[in-house]
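Treating backbone geometry as a discrete language has practical consequences that deserve illustration. In the encoding step, the backbone of a single protein was reduced to a row of integers, each denoting a local shape. The amino acid sequence and the backbone structure tokens for this protein are reproduced below.
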Amino acid sequence: MDKKTVTNMEVKKQNRNRVFRYICRNGTVSNPDISYEMNMSLPTVTQITKELIEKGLVEERGELKSTGGRRAKALSAAVNVRQAVGLDITRNHISLVLTNLTGEILKYERIYQPYASEDAYYRKVNKKLEDFLRKSGGEQEKLLGIGISIPGIIDLDRELISDSRVLGLEMVSFESVSRCFSYPCFFLNDANAGAYAEGIRPEGTEQFFYLSLSNTVGGAVFSRNELIQGKHFRCGEVGHMTVVADGETCYCGKKGCLDAYCSAAILSGAAGGKLENFFSALEREEEEAVRIWDRYTSYLAIAVNNIHMVLDCDIVLGGYVGSYAEAYIQDIWDKVSARNTFGESIPFVKACRHTVGAAALGAALKLIEDFVRQI
């Protein structure tokens, strides 16, 4: 096969992909709509949509209203023809998300399930996943697989969970976990998964840093619709960035890590173990909650400013704490701004868009995106 043939095939694939994404994004459209908006010839668009219909990815749904001439066929994406499950595993819970080709959350559930490093745990989780699918109407033949989010270092080259001190895992093969599930599995670090949910866009070009503030602190760099992984798949591991020399002890055994100062557990631990109780107390301006929040955000501001100085991009606050951050973003920005050398007037700190099940959603979306790119 010569270079020209390969190039032509790639161009056709890219155009088909762009057209499908356009239809997903815009609901019900016509071939003339697509041709005009995407600056493609009508015969080319018509051929592409015909191929997508033959693949079962696009459906004809009657005709659109006439604008003076022949009525155009109404086309919509068959968004539920393929689905994916996201599974977020933490020390005490699992979260499950079912999504379709547009990233719509069809069902979400969070279940108490303490982690154990044994096959019996994964088989139990698989049973809960099957129950979840039955309740949500998910169909086996539609399922692309399971995206599994793990709090740890995910080595995609060697197909290993190379290090998860939170779960007590080291050098665990993907296969040893996936064999306990009924569907193909894809693995992703939890902060990377949260960043993926936050950043994936049809024409995404932005770069941002996702700071995951859950019961462990992590991070991810997202740029041009891709995760930046790093040489050893540790890019963004700011939870173990030193913010206080010889400070408080982190669960990793070192002193002064950001995780020791900005874990969500610091806030929930001050409110009977429930984060929502802490933020309710903060909303009522209870003295102890205000004091703890002031200390928390002071260390958070140090980390945010340091990250911004290195990467010069927006910082998105995600994870458990990030889901409450919108109401307090001005307070956080004021503290960050006071530390910023360059006096930037436009805030570069933002609260996350996805406040529920972001890591599970991101893990599912990675499977969806990999599928869509092959259309």
